[in-house]
Amino acid sequence: MTATGVLLNSKAVPPQNLGTIVKRQRNRLGLTLRDLSEKSGVSISHLGRIEQSQRYPSANILLKIAKPLNLDERELFNLAGYLPALESKETNLKKHKSLAELDILINRITADLNHIKSIIRELHKMS
After folding, report:
1. What is the DSSP string of 2-69?
2. What are phi and psi of 3, to 5 degrees?
3. Per-domain residue ranges for the chain?
4. Neighbours of 48 (CB within 10 A)
5. What integer pLDDT is reported at residue 116 of this predicted model?
6. Is the pTM of this model over 0.85?
7. Other CB atoms within 10 A of residue 21 CB
8. What is the longest distance spanned by two Cα atoms in the chain?
9. Lowest mean pLDDT segment, chosen from 47-51, 78-82, 104-108
10. What is the tens place of the pLDDT at every residue in 75-86?
11. Which CATH number fits domain 15-80: 1.10.260.40, 1.10.3720.10, 3.30.70.1230, 3.40.50.720?
């Protein structure tokens, strides 16, 4: 759950779920369709169709309704399938930790290779 109470998914939500999310968020904020229409500039009928899953909102409509619904634009675009899913902080942290461990291993391998090369050079000098 996010601060706005909308569950983020790794995939776009089906159209009926996006409409449900919009309606629930509007209701949570105590907004009527008229209120949301006035704040967003999107007609009441169009908003109603979105909430009833009769219309799927364009990116432009999502931009208009995100702020009045107190939703992050990226979050709403993600839910609609217009953007890739957001990585969780935990996933991001794990990725950075793994990359740091990989860097350490690469440095060790590089040091070992340099050591092997110096041994080979010494052996060639002895022959």
Report:
1. -TTSPPP-SSPPPHHHHHHHHHHHHHHTT--HHHHHHHH---HHHHHHHHTTSS---HHHHHHHHTTT
2. -60, -25
3. 15-80, 87-127
4. 16
5. 95
6. no
7. 21
8. 91
9. 78-82
10. 888 878 777 765
11. 1.10.260.40
